[in-house]
Amino acid sequence: MPLEQSSANCPGDESSVAMATLNLPQGLNNKKMKTKNIIILTILTLGGFTMSEPAFSTPRPGRPAPMPMIRSTPVPRPVVTPTPAANPIAISYETSAASNIAISITAGQTGTSAGFSIQWMTLADYVALGNQWPPTSEVPNAQAPSFCKANFDYHLLPGQSISITIGDDGLFDSSSVSSPCSGNPLLCNTAYVFRATALDSTRGGLRVSDTITCGTLACTGGSSCTYSQGYWRNHPNVWPVTSLTLGTVTYQAAELMAILDDPAQGNGLVILVHQLIAAKLNIANGADPSAVQQAVTDADNMTGALVVPPIGNGYLPPAQTGDLTETLTEYNEGTIGPGHCND
User: Which of the residues 147, 167, 212, 263 could staple to 121 if both were Cys, CB 3.0 to 4.6 A apart?
Assistant: First the structure.
């Protein structure tokens, strides 16, 4: 007997296919159940085949054609990589000690192929000039007595940074730095302003960084504090001794002054002995030696019988003396030990 099929309201609706009414005797219902189920499943399957393509491809009156599902494809967002600033140089603050301030110099998009310069002076002088830098960069400077500068022969790549310590003896002993006040420590408990300059290789001319303000730490008073190498070089009249033994060689005051006045020029022995002289003068002046005594002994052992320039021609590579030099410098400048004296 033919089956009657109702019109489908929507695909997948239970009323889309009408069940057939089979006029069979009651006794045959159970026997024919399995056959009936197979027939119904077959009709449903065939109905699905006959409806699938025409039903979805031909729109019915008053009803829009079904649209395929559109899934948006994720588009990866570009990773934004920071680029160096347009200004060829930037300056920022790092750390302070009683006699020095460490700053960071960062090259901009053009780098510093011609090196760079740093200028500094006390905040008090800066304010006295109306929050302005002096019109000239002469040292000594009539408008700002504390004004100073240093030129650095460091060729930084775009985005490259370097740490510079202003006020310690590293400027004096570096062959890549020239400064009229490289050995002068900064005043303790004092605010300073800094700025950097560099040539702009693309647009030409000198470009200037922002001005930053930072201060040194407080000094330690009394006779137990320490002075930097620059202080002892500039104040020979207050030396507590007239001679010192460096390694196994004894030097008189005039010879020691000649050594202190002699730039290291890449000689690690001279760099080390500059700090060794200052440390021994500090100890002879009453400073507590406990924080640096082992470094003093090790420096004497490393120096041995070498005669320090310009008195002799002794030499040690800077890599060999670097660690001892750093420890002695920290003691003389007050980072370790009893603290830095008020110059």
Answer: 147
CA–centroid distance for 44 within its chain: 73
The closest of 330, 340, 269 to 300, measured between CA atoms, is: 269
**Radius of gyration (Cα) for the chain, nearest Å?**
42
Looking at residue 168, its amino acid is D
Alpha helices in 102-243 (DSSP H): 123-128, 229-234
Transcribe 193-215 into DSSP letters: EEEEEEE-TTT-SEEE---EEEE
For residue 253, which amino acid is it? Answer: A
DSSP, collapsed to helix, strand or coil, labels residue 117 as: strand
Q: Which residues of 279-293 are buried (b: 16+ CB within 10 A; e: fewer)?
A: bbbbbebebbbebbe
How confident is the model over 178-205, as pLDDT tens digits?
Answer: 898 877 888 889 999 999 999 887 776 7
pLDDT at 222: 64
pLDDT at 37 > cutoff 50: no
Q: What is the pLDDT of residues 7-22, one digit of tens each?
A: 333 333 333 333 333 3
250 three-class SS: strand
**Is the separation of the CB atoms in 216 and 187 below 8 Å?**
yes
Rounded Cα distance between 226 and 275, Å, is 12
Q: Rounded to two decimals, what is the model's pTM?
A: 0.65
Structure tokens at 107: 């090259």
Q: Shortest CA distance to 35 belongs to which of 48, 20, 50?
A: 20
Domains annotated on the chain, with CATH: 89-215 (2.60.40.10), 229-332 (no CATH)
Q: What is the mean pLDDT of the chain?
A: 78
The backbone torsions φ and ψ at residue 22, rounded to the nearest 5 degrees and listed phi first, read -100, 120
| Buried-exposed string 121-131: b where 16+ CB fall within 10 A, e elsewhere | bbbebbeeeee
Spatial distance between the Cα atoms of 169 and 44, rounded to a whole number of angstroms: 95
Q: How far is CA 8 from CA 58, 116, 201, 216, in A?
A: 14, 84, 78, 88
Percent of the chain with pLDDT over 70: 73
